[in-house]
Amino acid sequence: MEPSVGIFWLVQDHTGECILVTDRTALASAEPYGDCLTHARGHYEVWERWRHLSATARAKDGIPRGIVDREYEDFPRGRVVYHQPSARFWIYADRRLQQTLVLDQLRSAIGLPEDQCVVRSDPHYR
Question: What does the DSSP assignment read for 88-114?
Answer without folding.
Answer: EEEEEE-GGG-SHHHHHHHHHHHT--G
